[in-house]
């Protein structure tokens, strides 16, 4: 019987057993797609990553990302966590990574910068692989039903509920306050109905809710539900955070802007996460969106296959 090694990390946190859990298979050579999916299902984390040699030798690695039910083209915390794991290794498929990595993924090429001090990698910053995509609008009744909230718990002062993406699509809506956000509970039947009404070719209907507070205007509190992917709630969703940051800055009247937004997530789950999103807007167009955060090693071991 053969084995494959794994490492787990907690992403978007500097505290072990907080943030978002990720399992990384640093060398997935020889694993079939079906076996990758089975391993991801076995872990039960929101995502598991599988690292393979790059198709283009100028890049660092090819990274495949699986939820418990399907493969996704891009995600935030899996890229940050995978970069952290590989950055702490001496070599990646025989190459020293230095401070910059490039991951080949289904959504495109993901540029990564390792973060740390005194030669120790403590986290990573990634650049979203796709431009901001907006639409369609999602009716408020669908959002409220999915989150078990009242329609008047939602606000559309800045934007209506809408699907947005910088590599992986999410339906996003603003909630009037943190108290209402904390009351949200996913209704699986409503998600199934929403999935029929607003279908996606590459994934199922997922919902990213957020609220702002007057005390911290530069920080957003968020929650993400994807029960159709067997992710009842996600402690930290970098891809949704990146899309939200890009979308909010696209709505600003200024043609040029450099904005840094901190998104706090996972509080209701007891796994507080802090996601930093950087957005660069030039001549009315979002040019670059980055996501960064800390990571902490948690476990390592072997899987019998």
Describe the protein.
It contains 6 helices and 18 strands. The mean pLDDT is 94. The protein has 305 residues and is an alpha+beta fold. It is globular, with a radius of gyration of 19 Å.
Proper CATH architecture of the largest domain? Roll
> What's the story with the biggest beta sheet?
8 strands, mixed, barrel
Average pLDDT, rounded to a whole number, is: 94
Spatial order of the strands forming the largest sheet: 1-2-3-4-6-7-8-18
- What is the overall silhouette? globular
CATH superfamily of the largest domain: Diaminopimelate Epimerase, Chain A, domain 1
Active site: 47
Pfam families: PhzC-PhzF (PF02567)
Family: Belongs to the PhzF family.
GO molecular function: isomerase activity
Question: What would the keywords be for this entry?
Answer:
305 residues, alpha+beta, Diaminopimelate Epimerase, Chain A, domain 1, 2 domains, eight-stranded mixed β-barrel, 41% strand
Spell out the blueprint of helices and strands.
Elements: E1 3-11, E2 20-25, H1 33-43, E3 48-52, E4 61-66, E5 71-72, H2 76-87, E6 100-105, E7 108-117, E8 120-127, E9 133-137, H3 140-147, E10 154-155, E11 162-165, E12 170-175, H4 178-183, H5 188-197, E13 207-212, E14 219-226, E15 231-234, H6 238-250, E16 257-265, E17 273-282, E18 285-304
Parallel strand pairs: 2-3, 4-6, 12-13, 14-16
Antiparallel strand pairs: 1-2, 1-18, 3-4, 4-5, 6-7, 7-8, 8-18, 9-11, 10-12, 11-12, 13-14, 14-15, 16-17, 17-18
Helix pairs in contact: 3-5
GO cellular component, one term: cytoplasm
GO molecular function: isomerase activity
Protein name: PhzF family phenazine biosynthesis protein
